[in-house]
Amino acid sequence: MNDASIAIVLSLSPMSSTDTVLVPSSKFPASRVKYACAPSSSLKLSTAEFSLESAGAANSAATMMGASMNESVPPRKPTRVESKRFGPLTVTPDGRVRLGRGCTIVPGDIDWNFSRSGGPGGQHANKTSTKAELRLRLSCIVGLDPAALDRLRLIGARHVVGEGAEEALLITDSQTRSQADNRDACVGRLSALVSSAAIRPKIRRETKRTWGSVVRRLEGKKRDADKKQGRQSPGDEH
Question: What pTM value is reported for the model?
Answer without folding.
Answer: 0.53
